[in-house]
Amino acid sequence: MGRAVTIAACALNQWALDFEGNLERIFRSIDIAKCQGARYRLGPELEICGYGCSDHYYESDTLLHSFQALAKLLESPATQDIICDVGMPVLHRNVRYNCRVIFLNKKILLIRPKISLANAGNYRELRWFTPWNKARHVEEYFLPRIIQEVTGQETVPFGDAVLATKDTCLGAEICEELWAPNSPHIEMGLDGVEIFTNSSGSHHVLRKAHTRVDLVNSATAKNGGIYILANQKGCDGDRLYYDGCAMISMNGETIAQGSQFSLDDVEVLVATLDLEDVRSYRAEISSRNLAASKVHPYPRVKVNFALSCSDDVAVPTCMPIQWRHHSPEEEISLGPACWLWDYLRRSKQAGFLLPLSGGIDSSATACIVYSMCHQVCLAVKNGNADVLADARRIVNDETYVPEDPREFCKRIFTTCYMASENSSQDTCNRAKLLAEQIGSYHINLNIDAAVKAIVGIFSMVTGRTPCFSVYGGSSRENLALQNVQARIRMVLAYLFAQLTLWTRGMPGGLLVLGSANVDESLRGYLTKYDCSSADINPIGGISKDDLKNFIQYCIENFQLTALRSIMSAPPTAELEPLVDGQVAQTDEADMGMTYAELSIYGKLRKIAKAGPYSMFCKLVNMWKEICTPREVASKVKHFFRMYSINRHKMTTLTPSYHAENYSPDDNRFDLRPFLYNTTWSWQFRCIDKQVNAL
């Protein structure tokens, strides 16, 4: 009697529209699964074309090339004697669906369209796909000729069905369906499905991994069963990092855990499990059995194949494990670092350039690059041939082996301190010391000549010379003079990114890194088109408080002692004149609010969906021990004025690693106007009325 089934879940670093690379990674995962004895292989959502194709899903080419890749899989001997479950878009009766295509031995068993589409936050699936709304209904799908020629099939089942093998029953979920309140696994489990599969395209958010793990384990805790989750990993072409975490669970316990962050393009998780454990677990849940007796049955596709062997009594099965979660500081160290590596190797650039100011934000960005170098060296040490080949191409040396993170950092990372007459010697020294400790190629330069030239042109044309407020100038003059410095730094950053390697006799160019955190973006505390304007920003979705904790983590784990003085210094833009050689300008004084307050405003605005009045109502209770209602009202009004005045800056925000659910990214995540009535007259009047009542 067959009872021990061996199954495989994959985490693949797919890339949107990279059909050749995607297919190669799928084949590798199948080979690994088969070598480890798996009889069922599950891959990520839309793995053939890559999840992040966006409006390319509208193109017939995307459908065509997906079927061409599917034909390659079907006809290959590598896919024989293993059920393969792959993801791709399919057009059925002129409607586009997000589908799983499940096949065995050159025959398609079932095409299962997605039922619940992800359409919140960064997801826009309803823009490109239609959900399958016909529960437990199957139709005939007429295969394109390119597939018919391989399978010999004219039509195959398309719809909401399950697979009945010789020894068990399997049912598919796709990503969002696990998160839905009426997840299909509930009814499928009651109908006798013993193995649930989930193919995901789930991206990293700080502190989110435990939610996914809890959902998977709870899916089988109440109903029994085996749950297999596959997920995409890596940067597939935009702001998101898909964080793997492939997993296999049984009866509410984790059996196998994949890595959340790694530089491995292909990761395969294999487990052998006893079906009798599922059956005995379910047998004693009387409430489940009573509900099962009334369930409406699913259409079953019979498969003349078994996931187990007939004589498997001596086959060892896997035991439960304890899930190991990363701390938020570890997540910041690893997630953005892996995202940067994908972006660097896939953009075919030769490294990064970072304007390093000696403050927390740019220092955190530098530490993430240093962490990336650590990950690269570790991957090469562990025998990752893909990472070694990419590193050699990036540094243009076919014999190179990255072994020391500092030495590798020197080759691919340039830092630049751009001093002005308003810069202190302290920040200059901090930047230099940090650069020495991480090993970056460091440049010191002074921008005063360029600033004077720009202001000189203005004075020559207008006959007026602006002054800083400490010298009697107006607030307009003061702000304009700060902006000139900031924007010149952006121009110089791009110039040095293009030509620094040329001056060193090395080929290629550098990607410019930005370092504005999520709180500054929300408040608009940045100059439009300054050195926060870059190619990419690894910390743009991370809060100031989390970055401070990350800096402390780097002190302890990377022994970067230069960070101690950076941590203790008050954050400052250093754009206004020094007073007695010391910095007089600080970020929090400029903003009129603390970074801690900004994080609270951001979470209430985005996650709690609070406008000015609702935010006031929540904060008047939250802060009742430290602020009067009138003080709370003043703080809320100030935030919304500043937010709305500066919202236009989000339209040009540097593409940033998405890490927080209160990100103000205007591109797709936080869709709002950028021209507001900044008086908020009606809303503020409601607040004033409530203050008077209190």
From TrEMBL:
<dbReference type="InterPro" id="IPR014729">
    <property type="entry name" value="Rossmann-like_a/b/a_fold"/>
</dbReference>
<dbReference type="GO" id="GO:0034354">
    <property type="term" value="P:'de novo' NAD+ biosynthetic process from L-tryptophan"/>
</dbReference>
<dbReference type="InterPro" id="IPR003010">
    <property type="entry name" value="C-N_Hydrolase"/>
</dbReference>
<protein>
    <recommendedName>
        <fullName>Glutamine-dependent NAD(+) synthetase</fullName>
        <ecNumber>6.3.5.1</ecNumber>
    </recommendedName>
</protein>
<keyword id="KW-0547">Nucleotide-binding</keyword>
<dbReference type="InterPro" id="IPR036526">
    <property type="entry name" value="C-N_Hydrolase_sf"/>
</dbReference>
<dbReference type="GO" id="GO:0004359">
    <property type="term" value="F:glutaminase activity"/>
</dbReference>
<comment type="pathway">
    <text>Cofactor biosynthesis; NAD(+) biosynthesis; NAD(+) from deamido-NAD(+) (L-Gln route): step 1/1.</text>
</comment>
<keyword id="KW-0067">ATP-binding</keyword>
<comment type="subunit">
    <text>Homohexamer.</text>
</comment>
<feature type="domain" description="CN hydrolase">
    <location>
        <begin position="5"/>
        <end position="275"/>
    </location>
</feature>
<dbReference type="InterPro" id="IPR022310">
    <property type="entry name" value="NAD/GMP_synthase"/>
</dbReference>
<keyword id="KW-0436">Ligase</keyword>
<dbReference type="GO" id="GO:0003952">
    <property type="term" value="F:NAD+ synthase (glutamine-hydrolyzing) activity"/>
</dbReference>
<keyword id="KW-0520">NAD</keyword>
<dbReference type="Pfam" id="PF00795">
    <property type="entry name" value="CN_hydrolase"/>
</dbReference>
<comment type="similarity">
    <text>In the C-terminal section; belongs to the NAD synthetase family.</text>
</comment>
<dbReference type="Pfam" id="PF02540">
    <property type="entry name" value="NAD_synthase"/>
</dbReference>
<dbReference type="GO" id="GO:0005829">
    <property type="term" value="C:cytosol"/>
</dbReference>
<dbReference type="InterPro" id="IPR014445">
    <property type="entry name" value="Gln-dep_NAD_synthase"/>
</dbReference>
<dbReference type="GO" id="GO:0005524">
    <property type="term" value="F:ATP binding"/>
</dbReference>
<dbReference type="InterPro" id="IPR003694">
    <property type="entry name" value="NAD_synthase"/>
</dbReference>
